[in-house]
Input
Amino acid sequence: MNWWHDLPADEPFGLDNLPYGVAEFPDGPRVVVRIADHALDIARLAEQAGMESGMVWESGSLNAFLDQGPEAWAAARAWLQDTLRGTERADCVAPHLHPLAGVAMRLPIEVADYVDFYASEHHATNVGRMFRPDSEPLTPNWKHLPIGYHGRSGTIVASGTEIVRPSGQRKPPESTAPVFGPSVRLDIEAELGFVVGGGTRLGQPVAMADAWQHIFGVVILNDWSARDIQAWEYVPLGPFLGKSFATSIGAWVTPMAALSEAKVPLPGQDPAPLRYLAGEAAYGLDIHYEVDWNGTIVSRPEYREMYWSPAQMVAHMTVNGATLRSGDIFGSGTISGPAKETRGCFLELTWSGQEPVTLADASTRTFLEDGDTITLRASAPGPNGTVIGLAECVGTIAPAR
Ligand SMILES: O=C(O)/C=C/C(=O)CC(=O)CC(=O)O
Ligand SMILES: [Ca+2]
Ligand SMILES: [Mg+2]
Output
């Protein structure tokens, strides 16, 4: 027996999880798999085992592996679980395990396109009330289609990357003209990010029944948002510089195969969506989040509260014939539930800054201050009472430059 053979059921990165990442080794970056607090150098393990298909892991990103599609992902996972659960190949495994403390992780994906959705009814209602107090909080289209916008893939960064406070235009309520300067309403958005694998042909929509085949796995995603810049610029084309300065993702991608026990029905859709958005694939995921602000947990969003299913997001963003590419990432939108303590951004949690939160050191906050650190954590139920952890997503705010 080796230590990875009898990990406790509450180990978030046990053999039922096996998330993929990319580590910087002295001789170059390679794809690795996380087991508890170790990174397994699967490229070298596969090489030693004479496994040809392991060549895709000899890479600085997961993209080549993502390109191989669902059958290859399943085969790789089966081989890994078989190798790790058995004892006969333990001598081959052991030399390729590296303690995480000594391994630098990089952004695991060469990000292709990035879309961010708006799938929480509670978030959309709350934001509508604050941004558009004179209108209905939900726009007339909201329950007919999952609203999204195209974000900036080049500014998606790995967990741990410092976030420089953005500067831009904002228009203070009492002022008639905009002013320029560092954002004074810097916020987070706790989201689930979906990593796409396998491309599609231009003009070929993805049907609901096939949608999950294109989702390789998930990461925790933080869509940093400068609310003052956003509120002034977003009419009529939507979020732009208020969100494009940085989006953080966890360094390890948990494959969908690890989340089979997390499938849950959606809270309910009324009116029923159009046919291209309907079907059995329209389910949700039971993933519990924690929002940690400088060491204090200020919110516990629940992904199962989301109105739109990830499969509906895939069907919708391709229904016009737009392609998917390996390395695309789409965000769920802010995860907010009906209760105040389950809101996934500070705009909502502090009700636009009117209800400050108190941290453990007795200081209070409305929006982010320089030096603040946000850690997003998440976990889901796994098979046989185990826990599937998503890798944390951390960012610390640096002063505006
Ligand atoms: O309602 C608006 O004008 C915009 C709301 C958002 O902040 C958009 C967004 O990033 C979507 C989300 O995360 O749910
Ligand atoms: Ca967002
Ligand atoms: Mg962003």
About this structure: Residues 223-224, 243, 247 surround magnesium ion (ligand 3) (CB under 6 Å). The domain at 3-106 is CATH 2.30.30.230 (SH3 type barrels.). The mean pLDDT is 97.
